[in-house]
Specification:
Layout (H helix, E strand, L loop, with lengths): L8 E5 L5 E5 L5 E5 L2 H10 L4 H16 L2
Antiparallel strand pairs: 1-2, 2-3
C-alpha cells in the first residue's frame, strides 16, 4: 500500500475568523478567505516562486549542517 501524498497547503485560522492558505513548498500565503471553496480555487492557480523555493532549500541545507 502506498502512502498518500502530503497536503500541498496548510491552513491558519486568523483572529477575525478567516483562514490563510499557506503553500508547504514555498511557504507563501496563497490566499485568505472565510470560504474554504474560495481557498481551493486560489490554491489551484498558485505557482511557487522559484526564488522562495530556492531560499527555503538553502535555509534547510544550512540548518541540517549546523549541528
Amino acid at each position: 500500500m502506498t502512502q498518500p501524498d502530503p497536503p500541498l497547503f496548510t491552513y491558519r485560522l486568523n483572529f477575525d475568523g478567516t483562514l490563510d492558505s499557506i503553500c508547504r513548498r514555498c511557504f507563501a500565503t496563497v490566499a485568505s478567505s472565510e470560504s474554504v471553496p474560495e481557498l481551493h480555487l486560489k490554491e489551484s492557480d498558485h505557482v511557487c516562486d522559484p526564488m522562495l523555493v530556492e531560499r527555503y532549500e538553502e535555509v534547510s541545507r544550512f540548518l541540517s549542517t549546523a549541528v
